[in-house]
Design brief:
This is Transposase. It comes from uncultured Aureispira sp. By secondary structure, this protein is mainly alpha-helical. The chain has one domain (2-37). 74% of the residues lie in helices and 0% in strands. It has 3 helices and no strands. Helix 1 runs antiparallel to helix 2 (22-29).
Length: 39
């Protein structure tokens, strides 16, 4: 389970760098908007 969370965080960071919206990252990774904004 922990590895899955780490992978989601890596994916979210990469998407964020590419300018993908928080809403889309949330749907793709399951991370909360607050978690994504804090990356």
């Amino acid at each position: 389970m922990e590895g899955k969370i780490e992978r989601s965080i890596e994916v979210a960071k990469n998407l964020k760098k590419q300018g993908v919206s928080t809403d889309i990252i949330n749907k793709a990774t399951g991370l909360s908007k607050e978690e994504i904004e804090n990356l």
